[in-house]
Amino acid sequence: QVQLVESGGGLVQPGGSLRLSCAASGDHLKDYSTVWFRQAAGKEREGVSCIVGGDGIAGYDPVGYADSVKGRFTISRDNVNNTVILQMSDLKPEDTANYFCAADPRPFTFQNGCPRHLKFRGQGTQVTVSS
After folding, report:
1. Sequence-ordered list of residues with C-beta below 8 angstroms from that of 7, at least 6 positions apart, any chain
2. Alpha carbon of 118 to those of 59, 92, 124: distances in Å?
3. How confident is the model at residue 111 (pLDDT cuts 50, 70, 90)?
4. d(CA 73, CA 55)
């Protein structure tokens, strides 16, 4: 069982940057595929970035991004702190949402986007992009 806690959200102006953290306890997050989701008011949940767990799957990209964030968001691991990071830059008002992370012990490929159903999830952190 892994517990996830997100942090790093806040209010930022358009064009600004934020660094979100998904910190895990109870197990090694590096062994879990992890997805950053966001959900804006009145909109469907969107998987914006994902990273495969464990050794990944040979021949497949270990990370994935939604088209809406490609080139602006970067997902990475900090295994020392048992954390997955989402670095967000060039933020836009349409990036405003509650961001939460989810993790699953299964490896995934991301050819068709980030997986939607994972075993564990956190509560989220609010990101607001506004001038």
Report:
1. 20, 21, 23, 125
2. 22, 27, 15
3. confident
4. 23
Q: Pairing state of beta strands 33-39 and 46-51?
A: antiparallel
Q: Which residues contact 124 (CB under 8 A, 6 or more apart)?
A: 6, 98, 99, 100
Of 45, 97, 39, 90, residue with least CA distance to 69? 90
Report, as an integer, the average pLDDT of 61-79.
Answer: 96
DSSP label at residue 110: -
- Residues 6 or more apart whose Cβ sits within 8 Å of residue 58: none
CA 59 to each of CA 70, 86, 110: distance values in angstroms, whole numbers, following the listed order: 21, 24, 12
Q: What does the pLDDT look like over 18-61, one tens digit per residue?
A: 999 999 999 999 999 999 999 999 999 999 999 999 888 888 88
Question: Higher pLDDT residue, 37 or 112?
Answer: 37
Is residue 6 packed enough to be buried (19+ CB in 10 Å), middle (13-18) or exposed (0-12)? buried
Distance from C-alpha of 15 to C-alpha of 38, rounded to nearest angstrom: 19
